[in-house]
Amino acid sequence: MTQRRQFITLLGGAAAWPLAVRAQQPGLPVIGFLHAGSLEQNVQRLAAWRKGLSDAGFTEGQNVTIDFRWANGHIDNLRDMAADLIRHQVAVIATPGSTDAAFVAKSATTTIPIVFAAGGDVVALGLVPSLSRPGGNITGVTSLNTDIAAKRLGLIRQLVPQDGRFFVLVNPTSVLAQPFIKDLKAGAAKLRLQVEILQASTDAEIEAAFARLPKDPGTVLLVSTDAFLFSRHQQIVALVSRHGLPAMFDNREYAMAGGLMSYGADFYDVLQLAGGYTGRILKGQKPADLPVMQSTKFEFVINLKTANALGLTIPPGILAIADEVIE
């Protein structure tokens, strides 16, 4: 356990440094890093963001300082965290992989540049007025992960009985909840399926949501794109396994942890792009001059070991289109 904590601390960088240590690096620009999730659940994603920042010419401790703020799933804390970063006069606020944090940062400042990596249609959500001309002090990368919920439903639909019951777990406090539900219900209507909504924004509510799921063999669960739910992905996968549920998720970490399937944007690519944009702004470019980038890399991951444990046969056509099969 000690070695693991040390590893996380190294990757987390300034997130674990005392304020006095950070203050010993005068003259370096400071990136304010704001995220609704936790460091422990985002180690690899943080490494991808750092890679993009490094490619743009910035390395923490050498020519830039990073001041981390992790809300650990408590979205209500983001506002105070953003205000604190602003008081410290950071050069740019980065919210990679946290759409809720991007909205909080946007509402907190109109002058400090903001770089996001968001999971939905950022124009429809109101984060920017246009992809090509974001305007103002904010730009970034969008994965459109909430807009392929129907695609996920169609994929897992092919593995379950005709009379299967479909449920979706969402965090009602997230700005991504309604876009996700809208796209999922549109897809369900085309497939002539009913989707039932389960809501959870705390650990206890996650447990309660699973307790409400029927124990029928045809019960299927989809989990929405959300920083809080992702920060609890180990808990969710453990509950899915305990209940013997076929489940579909938005990113590979769920499948790697034992979930059945995931389909979504390559988050490492998204965050690397966001890191690069952060570096470009540190070099003097304005957010208004940097069009919002859209992710073009998507990945479909199947955990075959989990499928076998559930007694499911993956059709050859589905296996053939998988980017990765975990055996």
Question: How do the helices and strands line up, and which of them pair or pack?
Answer:
Layout: H1 2-12, H2 19-22, E1 30-35, H3 43-55, E2 65-70, H4 78-87, E3 92-96, H5 99-108, E4 114-118, H6 122-125, E5 138-142, H7 149-157, E6 165-170, H8 177-190, E7 195-199, H9 203-211, E8 219-223, H10 227-231, H11 233-243, E9 247-249, H12 252-256, E10 261-265, H13 267-282, E11 293-294, E12 298-303, H14 304-310, H15 316-321, E13 324-326
Helix pairs in contact: 3-13, 4-5, 7-8
Quick overview of this protein structure:
With 327 residues, this protein is α/β, with parallel strands linked by helices. Helices cover 41% and strands 19% of the residues.
Can you characterise this structure?
This protein has 327 residues and is α/β, with parallel strands linked by helices. The chain folds into two domains: 2-144 and 266-297, Response regulator (Rossmann fold), CATH 3.40.50; 146-264 and 299-326, Rossmann fold (3-Layer(aba) Sandwich). The chain contains 15 helices and 13 strands. The chain has a seven-stranded mixed sheet with strand order 7-6-8-9-10-12-13, with helices on both faces. Strands 2-1-3-4-5-11 form a six-stranded parallel sheet, sandwiched between helices. Helix 5 (99-108) links the parallel strand 3 and strand 4 (114-118). 45% of the residues are buried. Mean pLDDT is 89; it is low at 1-24.
